[in-house]
Amino acid sequence: MEFKAVITSGVSLAILLSYIYIITSIDKYESSDLPAFKKPIESKQIHTRRIKNSEKQFKNTLDNKNQWSIPQQRLEINTALKTRHRGVFYLKVNKAGSCTLQAMFNKYADKHNQIVGMPCSNSGGERHLVGWPEPFKPEYLIPLSKNYTYWEHLNEHIKYSSKIKQVMAPGSVFVASIREPLSHFFSYYNFYNMEKTYEGYLKEPNKFKYFLDNIKTMPHLELIHHMPPSNPIAQCFGIKQEEQYNITAIQEKINEIEKEFDLVILAEFMDESLILLTECSDLTIEDIVILKNANVRNIKKSKPVLTPTEYENLIQWNLADSMIYNHFNKTLWEKIDNFGRHKMAIKILELDMAKSIKQKECDSVQRKPNLTRIEDLKIKHDCMIPRLNYIGADKYFRNKMTEKGIYDIEKAQKTCKYPPNKHGE
Ligand SMILES: *[C@@H]1O[C@H](CO)[C@@H](O)[C@H](O)[C@H]1NC(C)=O
Ligand SMILES: *[C@@H]1O[C@H](CO)[C@@H](O)[C@H](O)[C@H]1NC(C)=O
Ligand SMILES: *[C@@H]1O[C@H](CO)[C@@H](O)[C@H](O)[C@H]1NC(C)=O
Ligand SMILES: *[C@@H]1O[C@H](CO)[C@@H](O)[C@H](O)[C@H]1NC(C)=O
Questions:
Q1: What are the mean pLDDT values of the chain's consecutive 10-residue runs (425 residues total)?
Q2: 189 CA distance to ligand 3 centroid (A)?
Q3: Closest by alpha carbon to 193, among 25, 305, 47?
Q4: Ligand 3: nearest atom to the Cα of 180
Q5: Ligand whose nearest atom lies closest to the CA of 325
Q6: What start and end residues bound the annotated signal peptide (predicted)?
Q7: What does pTM read for this prediction?
Q8: Between 374-384 and 341-367, two packed helices, what is the crossing angle to 10 degrees?
Q9: 191 C-alpha vs ligand 4 centroid, how far in Å?
């Protein structure tokens, strides 16, 4: 199955334009390939529309806001009975289905009123980064108030470190997603506008191919958001720059991921991966339903055709990512075999059925403008959460955590590099 997948003369204008580019492109091209050499066309209107959309989406979710008080009580009872749903740490690897998966995990976190971690380590257009490119430290998150010890949900852009295990609720499930090296790197190259960063080094007619043909002379230049030009997946998993071509170190990293993560999702086998997720977490089939989303455009995939040498160069440039992919492609299929291929096929049918039921449900509440029944409002809310883009979701969870007294905003003024306001924003 195909996977679908601010700031205000010359310098400030440049900052503004690049900010708009980043903001509007971040989930727009998520998990979809751009045709080669076509620069993303961005405009201010798109940005404004996006902000407006997220405002609107956000307001919609508030229809159901009075429910927050109920879950607070339930939260305490659940803690007492130890029936809380297991937490989820999702390592957000860009261009590997991460927007879709982030939205899915947001829905689960909201449904079970989980304690969601939000960063306070970066500012402006980089607000969503958890201290990146530094490995995770707890002070990168808005601190929790006294009654809470652990985070139950963390799915922001972060550099993995074993410290994450210490701050996540015991029993939390650790999940990451990766993607086949050529699709991933091509998508990443476009998304992070590598042609701009490597402007002086590339030649027409096909700059991507030129990059690969001349890989041995290409320097390692830092991209926007401090992203690395090579092995972005391995670097999300916390491999050090100087280790990215060291086979021993890469193998050690793979062993660490194998040990620390419950599941590595492959974007090419999303359904199978998600079924396996229901086996190793508290997510149900209904929780892994992903509906078509306006935030994730399904641009037809058009990977460039590479010569064997170009492909080999791409693999060498992204050696750590390729090794990680090969390993987890192998283990995914081992897991699928252990699960049973026939059973897998049945579960995927079940998932398809759950999708069409949910789609009908969401369409029906969308058609009715004037909902009053609490059940309808709840359905609308549940359909809305996964449709929030990352700006909207960020705002939603920051508000929710703050209003419920989960975040200690006062303490945050001391511990955060960029402290949140009284709404957690
Ligand atoms: C912490 O929990 C106690 C006992 O349940 C409660 O009385 C108190 O109000 C809570 N404090 C906060 C800040 O939520
Ligand atoms: C490669 O990594 C291993 C394990 O971390 C380390 O012992 C070794 O010194 C590294 N080799 C080089 C050439 O840096
Ligand atoms: C992933 O594994 C499957 C099954 O072993 C194999 O057929 C496929 O070629 C692998 N994909 C890549 C991109 O290596
Ligand atoms: C919403 O419902 C009320 C009462 O049923 C009705 O008066 C009003 O016109 C409706 N509004 C819309 C936008 O349908």
A1: 40 43 36 30 42 53 46 45 82 91 95 95 90 94 94 95 95 96 94 94 93 95 94 96 96 97 96 97 95 60 87 97 98 97 97 95 84 85 90 93 94 94 87
A2: 23
A3: 25
A4: 13
A5: 3
A6: none
A7: 0.81
A8: 120
A9: 44
